[in-house]
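Q: What would this chain look like folded?
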Amino acid sequence: MLLNVHIGGQWRYGETQEEKSQLISEVFEILAKKGSGGPDWRPGEIAQFSFSEQPYSDSSWPNNRLAISVNTSSGYGGLIWFFNGDSPPKGGAHGKTWVSDNPEPPGFDPQVVSDPGYPLFHDPASTLPMTMAVRTVRTLRTIRTANAELWGVEELVTALDAAGCEHYVNDTLTFGQQSSILTRPSDVCAVFSLPGRDNHVPHRDRHYLGVMHKHTA
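A: My prediction, written as C-alpha cells:
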C-alpha cells in the first residue's frame, strides 16, 4: 500500500514502512517551517495524506484524504478528513467531511490554518495538541485502507488504541448484522455493518464503517 502526501504543490510517496515513517517526519518538518506567523506573516501550510495501490498525481486526486496542519508557535494542530461527493457512494461516509474535535479546547486561538488560500483557520475547538495530531497521522501507516475502501472494526480500534483514545462497545447500536463503538471523552459514535454488494472489501464477513457521528444521547 502506497502512502501519498501532497504538500507545497508537490506529491511525495512512501511504500515500505521505513519510507512511510521517513516521509511523515519530512512532512512535519516542512509544516513546522511553513507554520503560521513569521516576520512577514504567513497563514501556514497543509499536508494531505492518502493511501492507494498506484501513485496519485495532479491529474488523479484521491477521493478521500486526511489534511493536517500545525502551528509550532502555539503547539497545536488540526485535522480534516474529506470524502469527496464525486466518489462512489459507500455507506454513510459518502460525500462527508470530518474535523478534529477537542473536548478541552485551548482558551486562546492557536492560529492553525485549515485553508491557506483564503486563508481560513480552525476553530480552537477543532485544534489538538501537536503531539496528538502527529500520533494520529503516524497511526495511518498501520491502517491498510486503499482508495475508497471502508474501515473495518479492527482497523479503527487499532487506530484508537495507538492514539490513546478510550473506547467501548455501544450496546444500544450493536445487534444483528451491525456493531457500534463509542469513544471517550469526545462521544463520537461509529456504526459498522456487513459490506454491501458494491463495496469492494477483502473480507465480506467482516463489519465495515458505515456511519460516524457525534453522540448526543
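DSSP finds three helices and 13 strands in the chain.
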